[in-house]
Request: fold
Amino acid sequence: MENASLTAAAPVAPRPVDESMRRLSLHAQIVRHDAAELAAGYTIAQHRLNIAGLIVFCGVAAWVGVHTFSRPIGLLPLVIGLLSGWVLTDFLCGIIHWAGDTWGRTKLPIVGRALVRNFREHHVDPQAITRHGLVQLLGEQAIVAIPVIGLLRLYDPAHDDDVGTTVLVSLYTTLMASVAANLFHRWAHMRHPPLAARVLQRVGILISFKHHARHHCAPHLQRYCIAIGWLNPLLDGIRFWRALEWLVWKMTGAVPREDDLGRTAALTILRSDRQ
Ligand SMILES: [Zn+2]
Ligand SMILES: [Zn+2]
Reply:
């Protein structure tokens, strides 16, 4: 009897973790938002606001564009400014996308419905972005960018200040490309984007369908840079996003992706990430 009870109590050697089973059980825990309900959150009032925002943004952007490019600019400041602005755009879009996916809440006043709703809708209905008109696609980014690009007008480096001119070109490029980023993102969801977009995707200047598709594998933990994609291998490789999440979680106790996936799935990812 003693022997039998000892046998029963003997610890069972742990089985090797079956990754696909783990993934299946995680997918079963994910709470999916209702795509139709999210789509209905884009109201006529917001559409009108977006139109007004785009008109104001175009005016301010043209005004600051003249301020930026009407000065004498050497070839080197121009090339470095455009290139660094392009890289900064990739990073800025990555940060905004990660923040929206990870910490955004649709129940937040104003921002929840106007901004976070877009991130939720994009995960449950990725092709909706190809059906949205330009006003819906770019309006909210334009509204957010208006005060920032307006402030850039105050930055007025001397005409012989090459470093200052490079910074000005870089920041202007970043702001303009960031507002257009959702258009680049939309092209990455189209099987047949316009010819110019296809060429830019093929030479690696814009994000491609193949590159972006990985982000859409639930639970959406990688490839947050959605405009260009140059920084994705680096930021995913060094686990930049997981480190940021850990920092925010430690400081605030907030569970990453709780709003996007539901608390159970979000906690499962958090625990498996900490092992
Ligand atoms: Zn996402
Ligand atoms: Zn996408």
About this structure: Confidence is low (pLDDT under 50) at residues 1-11.
